[in-house]
TrEMBL record:
Pathway, per record: Purine metabolism; 3',5'-cyclic di-GMP biosynthesis
Chemical reaction(s) catalysed: 2 GTP = 3',3'-c-di-GMP + 2 diphosphate
InterPro entries: Diguanylate_Cyclase, GGDEF_dom, His-kinase-like_sensor, Nucleotide_cyclase, Rev_trsase/Diguanyl_cyclase
Nucleotide-binding as UniProt keyword: yes
Occurrences of domain GGDEF (ranges): 365-502
Protein name: diguanylate cyclase
Bilayer-crossing regions: 284-304
Cofactor annotation: Mg(2+)
Enzyme Commission identifier(s): 2.7.7.65
Keywords: GTP-binding, Membrane, Nucleotide-binding, Transmembrane, Transmembrane helix
Enzyme class at the top of the EC tree: transferase
UniProt organism field: Kosakonia pseudosacchari
Length: 505
């Protein structure tokens, strides 16, 4: 039973182990797949947005270069204002993100603009792009930090260029402003989840645009973030994770640095949100697997219980069988044994006589029979009592058993104080010899018998013998002849052996 329990425990452990490994492998594999898909998606998005931003800035660059070239060629005097205004108006429809185009003179005074608005302050000398160009001789366009437009109060990005006179002296700034709202509208159409963000940062780390929009984040310096201090130093594009300094949410983000303008586009999704479906899947998988494991344990418990029950029943059945077999054997003995003497009983004798006669007949052998009767037994009973009489019969039977113990002869109690012995393959002479030995041995037992002339218990024996073949089907004849011989032994004085002289035919 211990072995079965151990085997069941090993089986359950192996199943548990195999299922657990499969579960963990499956969960890790689906997590890797989810992350890979996510990485691909956000990388594609940041790449697309980078191309989108580059396109707008490139168009803006071309526009502002054209306008600044025209301004430098024709000047910005009063006679040119109308021409310049007309040229600016023609550019209006070229770029949907376009907010305004303004030309400032060397003092920062607005000379002309595409849209005038309601602004009182028409001087832009304090603007960062103006200061940059005044102090910097480069003729490249400058993408400045976001500012609030003085024309319409909108958040805008500035793309500007330095103006010079023929001697190369600073002569003002041509600036083009782009609506941040327009970028936000495009960003908003992309699905980055409830906590996702999209941002555009200058090459030096100034936050230009962030979706979802919050004015307090615009213009913030991110040059000290890991994106600028670590990742962008290694590669211009990639995937990273970080906890946002703005809202403390952990996000996975892809970044893409524009090769032409250095602008950095990032697309970030919340880790929690991105992995939610994987987590739900993993939880369901874990619950299903745990349920199945529970079923295995539960069913194993019942299987073990059932196996134990069956083993117990089969043990009980074999015990019952063994006990029945031993009872049967006892019954067999009881059915064939004489209770007082332990010799074969009359029934057994009858069966054995028929069987031995048949055997002797087939072997063409003789067979003999002894009929033994205790002498003066009534007197013994009368003198010593019935119980002592029983004891005397037991003693005679024991003596008889001992005498024929080494032989194939069968002794039985024929009834009362009479015994019978079957002697297979024995002729009359040999039978007489055995009978004499039996009589002698019983006398030598010296069982006191005051009422017998000998003073001890003796027996008379009648012997009959003949061809077994002649007795087949007439076995009783052998008994009859032995009985006659016994009668003669009794009547001729007892304590003797008499052989029947009648021929068996
Ligand atoms: N104690 C005891 N006595 C038995 C048993 N069976 C028979 N007897 C007695 O055996 C006696 C047989 O007596 P009888 O047939 O007259 O013969 P006997 O006294 O032996 O005389 P002979 O055979 O002529 O020598 C009877 O008294 C029976 O009651 C038994 O199992 N136990």
């Amino acid at each position: 039973m211990k072995k079965e329990r151990l085997a069941a425990a090993i089986f359950i452990t192996v199943v548990f182990f195999a299922i657990s490994i499969t579960l963990v492998a499956q969960i890790i594999s689906t997590r890797t797949h989810t992350l890979n898909d996510l990485n691909t998606n956000i990388s594609n998005l940041s790449h697309t947005l980078d191309t989108y931003s580059e396109g707008i800035i490139r168009q803006s660059e071309m526009l502002i270069k054209n306008i600044s070239d025209i301004t430098e060629i024709y000047g910005m005097g009063a006679d040119q204002k109308n021409n310049l205004k007309r040229i600016l108006s023609e550019q209006d429809q070229l770029l949907i993100q376009l907010n305004n185009i303004v030309i400032y003179d060397a003092r920062g005074d607005k000379v002309i603009s595409l849209r005038d608005g309601n602004s009182v302050n028409s001087n832009g000398a304090d603007r960062s792009f103006f200061i940059y160009h005044r102090n910097n001789p480069s003729r490249n366009v400058f993408i400045g930090p976001p500012v609030v437009s003085r024309t319409n109060g909108q958040w805008v990005l500035t793309v500007s260029r330095r103006l010079e006179d023929k001697e190369g002296v600073f002569n003002g700034v041509a600036v083009l402003t782009l609506n941040i709202a327009n970028f936000l509208q495009t960003y908003g159409k992309l699905d980055t989840g409830k906590e996702g963000t999209i941002a555009l940062t200058s090459g030096t780390g100034t936050l230009l645009i962030r979706y979802p929009f919050d004015a307090k984040f615009i213009g913030r310096e991110l040059s000290d973030s890991p994106l600028f201090t670590v990742y962008l130093k290694k590669s211009s594009a990639g995937i990273a994770t970080s906890v946002s300094r703005f809202d403390k949410i952990e996000r996975i983000y892809s970044f893409q640095k524009n090769k032409r303008y250095g602008l950095v586009t990032t697309v970030a999704v919340s880790m929690d949100e991105a992995m939610a479906s994987w987590r739900r899947q993993a939880e369901i998988l874990a619950i299903v697997i745990l349920f199945l494991m529970g079923c295995v344990v539960f069913s194993s418990f019942f299987i073990i219980k059932e196996v134990r029950r069956r083993i117990r029943i089969s043990k009980e059945i074999s015990e019952a069988k063994a006990s029945l077999a031993s009872e049967n054997a006892e019954l067999q003995v009881i059915a064939t044994e004489d209770a007082l003497t332990g010799l074969a009983n009359r029934r057994k004798f009858d069966e054995a006589l028929v069987a031995e006669v048949a055997k002797g007949a087939s072997n063409k052998q003789p067979i003999a029979l002894l009929l033994i009767d205790v002498d003066y037994f009534k007197k013994y009973n009368d003198n010593y009592g019935h119980i002592a009489g029983d004891g005397c019969l037991q003693a005679v039977a024991e003596n008889l058993k001992k005498t024929i113990s080494e032989t194939p002869y069968l002794a039985a109690r024929y009834g009362g104080e009479e015994f019978v012995v079957i002697l297979p393959e024995t002729d009359a002479d040999s039978a007489k010899h055995i009978a004499s030995k039996i009589g002698r041995n019983i006398k030598l037992e010296n069982i006191p018998h005051q009422q017998s002339p000998l003073g001890v218990v003796s027996v008379s024996i009648g012997v009959a013998a003949g061809s077994a073949a002649s007795l087949t089907g007439n076995e009783a004849m052998l008994i009859e002849l032995a009985d006659e011989a016994l009668y003669e032994a009794k009547s001729s004085g007892r304590d003797r052996v008499v052989i029947s002289q009648r021929e068996i035919t």
